Amino acid sequence: MSDSPYKSPETSSDAESKEGSSSAALKGGKGQTTPFDIKTMPPGIPYIIANEAAERFSFYGMRAILYVFMTEHLMSLSGNLEVMSETEAKIWQHNFMTAAYFFPIFGAILSDWLFGKYRTIIWLSLVYCAGHAVMALVDFPTLTQLAPRTCLFWALSLIAIGTGGIKPCVSSHVGDQFGKKNEHLLARVFFWFYFSINLGSAISTVLTPRLLEKYGPGVAFGVPGVLMAFATLLFWMGRNKFVHIPPTGNRLIFEIISWPGIRAILNLIPLYIFIAMFWCLFDQTTSAWVEQAKHMDRVVMGFEFNPAEAQAMNPILVMILIPLFSYVIYPAVERFLPLTPLRRIGIGLFLTVPAFALPAWYQMRIDAGGEPHISWQLLAYIVITAAEVMVSITALEFSYTQAPKTMKSFIMGLYLLSVALGNKFTVWVNEYIQSQQEAGNSALEGAAYYWFFTAAMLVTAVLYVVWSQFYFGKTYIQGDETAEDAAVQ
User: Fold this and answer.
1) Is the pLDDT of residue 147 over 70?
2) Check: CATH 1.20.1250.20 for 40-249?
3) Which one, 85, 148, 352, 365, has the greatest CB density within 10 A?
4) Residue 471 in 3-state DSSP?
5) Above 60 in pLDDT, residue 482?
6) Under DSSP, is residue 320 helix (H, G, I), strand (E, B) or coil?
7) How far is 331 from 326, CA to CA, in rounded Å?
8) What is this structure's pTM?
9) Which DSSP string corresponds to 44-100?
10) Which residue in 218, 182, 223 sits closest to 57, CA to CA?
11) Residue 172 and residue 175: Cα distance in Å, rounded?
């Protein structure tokens, strides 16, 4: 990366690379602790991109069918159907998401403090693979003699530790491969990196629901497991092509407790609390929206969509909307209103309000005995994905600029805690609903459930606007030796 503190000694191989030698001939490995002094693409990048596509396929494929599996396919130890209620399944689904986005902070610390990115990724990928293996066995209680819910708990726990632990390390590992001479290629690589995430997600959220429908949970969960094993193998194959930046040791701890570190954390925590409500609503596309799709007319041109397949709309729309916002919408708005990062996030938070009001309206029609068409859900996906582009991507970039240089992985892990907090809020609401149901009362039934979260999002967005007027952060620019205070609201 452009602010790398490491300098390569001048060697004959360096001189050769300066003259434009092929990066394919370069050797990485444990001894390569500085970026290659080349102008071309680092040799380890193809392994990282391929690994990310396969890993994201496995995660999103498993997640896409998890809610449907728990509400339609889960069995008892005796092999009889024993499914969860809608509320209980939402609690499990969002507790899993909470854990998956809680562990990144520990992955970032372990990576930067003790083990380095490569070892952290490879070891936790093996934990990840074990989780998928256990997940594929949940549907065979008579074979394993394990209660399916117990098996499911351990499978989701292992997957959450694995996916969460590697999450803050992978993108930083990409940046580690670049030095001064080829940093101009970073934008291209991160485009393909993000593209691979959404491509893997789109394919898996279409394929795995069909596998569940045709071949059952064992195959549907097994295929993502095989892809995760393949992803781990690909990453291991690139071990001698990678640059391995060593961990910083206790330096990380001193940076976190330093004044710049504490200031950055205290500045960003309120922002992440506001963004948590966005994730609370957005991640319900994997649960509440799937349940709603079950009660909609899903036939399009003679083809009936699976309720879980609608989730594929999000990654497909992301690939469409990112260039649309970057090259058309943002430049057009900038002619009339400067779009600072905090303004973009604020607009995205307000945009999330109608994104959940639309499903509330659909649910009112369903509650009245109607059967709205699934195309209406596409409209809601367009709105919430537009909000995602403005909130999620902007917040990631903004967090990176507000983080001191030696704390960027840690701040990324801290940002992901906002996703965990948002999902935990969903869990708390559904646990309250469940407690009321067990007491013989009703709470937030039907459309009221959606209107509650719509109102919560509106209140959050208004409070965010007030807070953002008082934000005065410090921007750390890569390659600069000084940081500048900047009002960015």
Assistant:
1) yes
2) yes
3) 352
4) coil
5) no
6) helix
7) 7
8) 0.86
9) THHHHHHHHHHHHHHHHHHHHHHHHHHHHT-B-TTS-B-PPPHHHHHHHHHHHHHHH
10) 223
11) 5
CA–CA gap between residue 86 and residue 363 (Å, rounded): 15
Exposed e or buried b for every residue in 260-278, given b needs 16+ CB within 10 A?
bbeebbeebeebbbbbbbb
Rounded to 5°, the CA angle 419-422-425 comes to 150
418 contacts: CB under 8 Å, gap ≥ 6: 272, 273, 275, 276, 279, 395
Q: How far apart are CA 80 and CA 143, in angstroms?
A: 14
d(CA 109, CA 165): 10
Provide mean pLDDT across the span 196-220.
Answer: 90
Domain ranges for the chain, please list them. 40-249, 250-489
Q: CA distances (Å), 151 to each of 143, 234, 326, in order?
A: 12, 28, 44
429: enclosing H helix or E strand: helix 408-438
Lowest mean pLDDT among 410-424, 426-440, 470-484: 470-484
- Looking up tokens 């934008």 gives 187
The CATH architecture assigned to 250-489 reads Up-down Bundle (1.20)
Per DSSP, the residues of 355-424 read HHHHHHHHHHHHHTT---BTHHHHHHHHHHHHHHIIIIIHHHHHHHHHS-GGGHHHHHHHHHHHHHHHHH
Structure-token pair, residue 395? 């917040």
> Two tokens at 353?
């309000």
Buried b (16+ CB within 10 A) or exposed e, 186-208: beebeebbbbbbbbbbbbbbbbb
Ordered DSSP codes for 106-169: HHHHIIIIII-HHHHHHHHHHHHHHHHHHHHHTT-HHHH-S-HHHHHHHHHHHHHHHHHHHHHH
Mean of all residue pLDDT scores within the chain? 87
Of 49, 48, 169, residue with least CA distance to 104: 169
User: Which residue type sits at 136?
Assistant: A
Q: Is the dihedral of CA 113, 116, 121, 122 positive or negative?
A: negative
Q: What is the rounded distance in angstroms from the CA atom of residue 346 to the CA atom of residue 372?
A: 31
Which of 28-32, 140-144, 300-304 is predicted with the least confidence, judged by mean pLDDT? Answer: 28-32
Nearest to 37 by CA among 62, 52, 19: 19
Quick one: which H or E segment has residue 335?
none
Are residues 252 and 109 in contact, defined by beta-carbon separation less than 8 angstroms?
yes
- Judge if 40-249 and 250-489 fold alike in CATH terms: yes
Which tokens in the block code for residue 310? 């609608």
Q: How many CB atoms lie within 10 A of CB 254?
A: 12
pLDDT (tens digit per residue) in 34-47: 878 888 888 888 89
For the cut 50, the answer to whether the pLDDT of residue 219 exceeds it is yes
